[in-house]
Amino acid sequence: MKDDVRALAAEFKAFLSSREEDDLTPAACHQAAAHVSAAAQGHEGQLAGRQAAAPRSDDNHGAASQPQDHLTIEFVRAGKHPFHTVSAASVPTAAPAASQPHAAPAVSAAQTQEKAASQDALTPQSTDTMQDKQAALNQIAEEIKACRRCPLGQTRLNAVPGEGNPSAELMFIGEGPGFDEDHKGRPFIGRAGQLLDKMIAAMGLKREQVFIGNIAKCHPMVNPADPEARGNDRAPNAGEIAVCRKYIERQIAVISPKYIVALGGVAAKALISDTKSLGALRGKFHLLHLDTVELKTPVKIIATYHPAALLRNPGWKKDAWADLQMVMAEMGLKRPQA
Ligand code: SF4
Predict the structure, then answer these.
(1) Contact 150, 243 (CB under 8 A)
(2) What is the pLDDT of residue 28?
(3) What residue's CA is closest to ligand 1, atom 5?
(4) Which residue ranges form the domains of the chain, and what is each CATH number?
(5) Per-residue pLDDT tens for 94-126?
(6) What gap in Å lies between CA 132 and CA 204, rounded to an integer?
(7) Which of 131, 132, 143, 196 is nearest to 170 (CA)?
(8) What pTM was computed for the model?
(9) What is the distance between the alpha carbons of residues 133 and 320, in angstroms, rounded to a whole number?
(10) Ligand 1: which of 142, 240, 241 to mutate, most ligand atoms within 8 Å of CB?
(11) Cα(174) to centroid of ligand 1, in Å?
């Protein structure tokens, strides 16, 4: 899939390169969008016809009045479009730039190509707006709820996709749901979740401002035959993580946070791709490593104790607070006044 998208992005760049600088108008970009869409679906014959009927680059009124290119729109809906801002739906209705006395200076071909490169959507989950992101997260959540790819799916009461701000700058990621989460289908809502809420509040944030999830989306149990038993939680094993991690990776790609706090050693090792102990991973930022998707921008990740571990070992709270303060310093957050 990535190779296909890269090939399409390269084709788009080549198409732009073939245009004169003063020809890179919205109409021309619309034409480029149609070109890539048609190429993606093997409709080069349709493309030739569409190019013949496409508005001239000096006729933006014509571009605005053209019916929407259904191939382009389908491509956008599929989340594969590498240049949302030049889709048919976004072609402006303004008069030609030459007729506007205060028109912005023309964008150079190099700038346009650079922008196109930066907007390359290398993953199907890459999205631009809050609404797009929420829709993409909803889609992933539906897939998780239907998933039975590992044994945890056979014994869970509810899958727990995760929840929060689809454009969060900060994500908290744990290892897997426990008893309370399994019963409600929401992450971090038991005692450990209440402590996490306090940790988030101490950072000057609200739970709704961040995204909270787990690497494994279904409840790992010591005794899978008894989901009603308390004290039946365990960490997901390596096989379960390997099968399930594609979901959290897609969620990260959609949300595109700047920072992640990995809660506990299991989550930290999986996301940092390092087998060192939590003690060795704590206290510094790492670069996030994903297996199944490519990030558009690097994400910094810090490891700290899982809130459940802090409930068992309150003496570790000061170390966890030190980790969170490192994130706060990076994000420019201040602890609220008591
Ligand atoms: S834990 Fe993940 S892979 Fe396993 S069934 Fe649940 S959603 Fe699917």
Answers:
(1) yes
(2) 41
(3) 153
(4) 2-118 (no CATH), 130-331 (3.40.470.10)
(5) 333 333 333 333 334 444 444 443 333 334 444
(6) 27
(7) 196
(8) 0.64
(9) 30
(10) 240
(11) 15
